[in-house]
Amino acid sequence: MYRGERKSIFYVLGLYLSSTLLLITTIFVSYYYYERDQFEHSEKDLLKKQTFLLTQQLSKLNENSSDRYKYPRFDEFESAIYDIDKNLIFSTSKDISITNSKDSFFTKASNSYLISPLTPYYFGAAFIVVEKKSKNLDILDNLIFIAIVTIIITLITSVFLVNLVLRPIRENIKLLDSFIKDTTHELNTPITAILTNIETINSSSCDEKALRKLQRIKIASQSISNIYEDLVYILLNHKTSTQNIDLDLSKILIQRIEYFTNMAQAKNIDFVLDAKDEIHFKADKKKMQRLIDNLLSNAIKYSNKDTTIKILLSENSLSIEDEGKGMSEQEVEKIFTRYLRFDKSQGGFGIGYSIIKSIVDEYNIKIDITSKQKQGTKVTLSW
Amino acid sequence: MVRLLSFFLLFYITLSASEFDKNCFDCHSKDFKFHIIINKYTLKYSSEQKIKEAMVDYLKSPSIEKSILPLEYIQKFGLKEKSPLDDKTLREMIDIYYEKFNLQSKIY
Fold first, then answer.
1. pLDDT at site A52
2. How is domain A241-382 classified at the CATH fold level?
C-alpha cells in the first residue's frame, strides 16, 4: 500500500464514517425522543382520566353535608390534594409532593405524576396530584443494539466503498509502475552498450570537436544510467537482498564525485570537497551509492551554471550545498512525495527524494533540508 | 404548676367559647346551617389563610362584591352589617369558627 493511498483511505473512511455516524445518531436520538414523547403523552392521558375521576368524586362528596368525609380512593392510582398555597390537605401516598416540581407532568422513582389545577376548590383543593406506577420505556437497549449492528454494517460497507473509490487510482499507479518496469527493462541493454563503447574509444584518435561530442554523449548516457539505477532501485526495492557491510564513505563519495564530474563540468560547476578520510558506516553499498548519487545529481540538476557545490563529510554528517534556484518552505515539506517534481524543465521522474527518504529511513539517518529561493539548497545527513 | 397552667388553659377556652357564643351564635342561631358559609368560602378561597383574610375583610367592610352569598339571598335578606367587634376579637372569633367548621379536618 502506498503512503498516499493509506492517507486517502483514512480520509475517505473518516469522512464516510463520521457523516454516517452523525446521521445514525441523529435518527436514533430523534426516534428515542419521539418514542419518549409518545410514551409521556399516553401516560399523561391516563393520568388526566384518573384526575377527572377523582374530581368527579370530590365534587359529589362536596355536595353532601356531613361531619366526616371519606376521601375517594382508587386501586389504580394514588392521589393528593393541595390548597392554593400548596399546603397538603390530604394524601393517600407518602411519596407525593409538589413543592419542587415545575412541570405539570413528571416522573420520579418509576412513578408518573400529574399536577392539575382544580376549580372550584372542593375541600379547598386547588391542585390535584395523581400518582401512578409508570410503565418502562424499554426501547433504549434495543436502540443501542440496532445502532451497534448498523455501525458494524456501515464499517463493512465503508471498507468496500473505499476500495471501490481507490480502485481506479490503484490501477493507474499499477499501470505507471508496469510501464516504468517495461521501459527500464528495455533501457538496460542499449545504455550498457553505449557506455561500454564510449569507454573503449581511443580519445587520441579523435579530433577535439568529436571528443567534445563524445563527452556530451557520455554525460547523457550517465544521466540515463542514473535514472535507470533509480528505477531499478524503486522497482526491486523489496526484492533485493541487503548486504550491510562496513563501508568507507570517503572513498565512495570521492568515486561518485568523479563519476559526476563530467556532468558537472557541462554546466561549469565545481565540486568543493572537504572530506575526512576513513569515515566508516555500516550499510549496503548499492544503497549508499544511490543515496549519494541522488543527492549529487539533484544538486547538479538544480544548480545554476558557473557555481560551486560544497560537499562536507565529517564523522557524523554529510552535507551537500548547491547554489541553485532553491525551494519554498511548502516545496521542502512535499519533497519526499513520489513522482513530484517542482521544476518540470528538468528531467527525471521525481523519484530521487523518494529513494533518498527510503534509504535514510532504513539506516536511521537524519535528513535536514534548508533551502532559500534563488540562493540554493543545503541537504545535511547526520547519523 | 401544671395544674395551674391547665386551669388557665381551660379557663381561656371556656371564656373564648362563650365569647364565640355571644358574638356569633347570638345571631347565627344553632339551627342555622353555619357550616354552609365555610363551604362557600372554601370553594372560593381554598387555603386557611386566604379564607380567614376574606372573612375578616368582609366582616369589617361588607359589600356585594365581597359577599359569597348568591345575589338573590342578598336581595332578599340584604347585606350584613359591619361587625362591631374590634380587629383582635374578630380574628379570634374567625379562628374559632374555622377550627370548629373547616372541611379539611373532616376528611379521613
1. 94
2. Heat Shock Protein 90 (3.30.565)
